[in-house]
Description:
Elements: H1 2-10, E1 17-21, E2 26-30, E3 35-43, E4 46-57, E5 60-68, H2 74-92, E6 97-104, E7 110-122, E8 127-138, E9 141-149, H3 155-164, E10 166-167
Antiparallel strand pairs: 1-2, 2-10, 3-4, 4-5, 5-9, 6-7, 7-8, 8-9
Amino acid sequence: MLCVSLAAACSPAYNWRTVTDSAQGYAIDLPAKPTIDERQVQIAGNALPMHVRAAHTQGAVFAIAAIDLPRDDARLRQAVVQTLRGALGRNVGASPVEHPVQVPLSAGAAAQGVEIVATGEAGDAHEQRTIHAWIVGRGRHVYQAAIVAAHAPPQEQTDQFFGSLKLQ
């Protein structure tokens, strides 16, 4: 019994690993082995491919989504960013708090993005959820890195996740 307790105490709740997706142009640390999902999203009259990697741990979902644009089009990129921004608040029925954020590029510069935090009730059960996200558009992609949880993870885990995001 003591061995089982000690083994459980030693297993990390956050098992960070760097995920690099060259096709989508990003690298990010996720706290568990991610699931992979791809689907089409309708935004600004376009069916756009969205690629999602999500890791579930400690009651939170850490996810990175990359939406492919058909071309490097600033107007379409901005429309996708605005759609994602609006959806986050609607998902929890709350007005989000937004701040500008600099997302590092692997070449050493940074891309201008937005950090969003919204807390409210989600789903049919109206459960409390906080969504903390960074959204940034670059080239033919729009990225959304997000943590969704009933209770915010420890700050060092949040910092690890967002601080590791790098775009190509």
